[in-house]
């Protein structure tokens, strides 16, 4: 079983936690991680882009000139694609779905690989208690300084309890900190972070979901 130190808000070790090797100590699978990051990024696309084809643009009701005898190429409408202001051919529409499907087992493998990478690199920091009495970015910055991650890109993983709401408020205005709920954490965020701060409860929730 992999072990991880648990520290307090002062950065002092208070205990250890055992983590399941099937989640936090596997050999990273690069292809599954690549596929999941693509899927996550694709799911963030709104798909609201839209263009008008020749049936939707205004004008073009009559033939610009007669078919023969002018010496020019025949034209049926001034709103044909080759005309300025004409319709767009094969342009994007809101009907396009960018979702990339991925099997559940492959998703789990990718998430396990991401967590295993971060644990191997020593970038996971577990805090015993992050319940702030009042929202305070100043106090949260002190926490970052105490565990020596104040200059890194930090992913803060909370378990969604009401007691941690002030912690969320304290961290959301800090530019290098991204607070997320353990059920909504994305692999892209894990890989892009340089340090992950979480609680014992949130870490165990993630472990149980991936087993």
What does this protein structure show overall?
This protein is α/β, with parallel strands linked by helices. It is built from 7 helices and 6 strands; from the N terminus they run ββαααβαβαβαβα. It has helices spanning about 20-25, 30-45, 105-120, 135-145, 165-170, 185-190, 200-210; strands at about 1-5, 15-20, 125, 155-160, 175-180, 195-200. The protein has a 6-stranded mixed sheet. The protein is elongated and about 95 Å long.
Ranges where pLDDT stays below 50 over 5 or more residues in a row are none
Q: Which descriptor suits the 3D outline?
A: elongated
The biggest beta sheet, please?
Answer: 6 strands, mixed
Annotation, overall tally of beta strands: 6
**Overall pLDDT, averaged?**
92
Order of helices and strands: EEHHHEHEHEHEH
Number of helices: 7
Task: Tell me the fraction of residues in β-strands, as a range.
Answer: 15-25%
Which strand order does the major sheet show?
2-1-3-6-4-5
Structural Rg = 27 Å
Distance between the termini: 14 Å
Which structural class is indicated by helix and strand composition?
alpha/beta
Measured as a percent range, the helix fraction is: 25-40%
Brief description of this entry?
The protein has 211 residues and is α/β, with parallel strands linked by helices. The chain has 7 helices and 6 strands, in the order ββαααβαβαβαβα. The protein has helices spanning 21-24, 30-43, 104-120, 137-146, 165-171, 187-192, 200-210; strands at residues 2-7, 13-19, 124-127, 154-158, 177-181, 195-199.
């Amino acid at each position: 079983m992999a072990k991880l130190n648990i520290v307090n808000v002062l950065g002092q070790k208070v205990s250890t936690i055992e983590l399941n090797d099937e989640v936090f100590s596997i050999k990273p699978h690069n292809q599954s991680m690549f596929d999941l990051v693509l899927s996550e990024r694709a799911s963030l696309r709104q798909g609201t882009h839209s263009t008008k084809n020749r049936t939707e643009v205004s004008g073009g009701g009559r033939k610009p000139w007669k078919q023969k005898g002018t010496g020019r190429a025949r034209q049926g409408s001034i709103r044909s694609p080759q005309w300025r202001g004409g319709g767009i051919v094969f342009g994007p529409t809101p009907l396009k779905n960018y979702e990339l499907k991925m099997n559940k087992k492959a998703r789990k493998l990718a998430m396990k690989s991401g967590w295993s990478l971060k644990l191997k690199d020593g970038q996971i920091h577990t805090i015993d208690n992050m319940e702030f009495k009042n929202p305070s970015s100043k106090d949260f910055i002190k926490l970052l300084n105490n565990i020596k991650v104040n200059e890194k890109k930090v992913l803060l993983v909370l378990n969604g309890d009401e007691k941690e709401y002030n912690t969320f408020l304290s961290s959301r205005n800090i530019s290098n900190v991204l607070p997320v709920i353990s059920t909504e954490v994305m692999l892209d965020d894990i890989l892009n972070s340089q340090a992950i701060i979480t609680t014992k409860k949130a870490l165990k929730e993630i472990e149980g979901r991936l087993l």
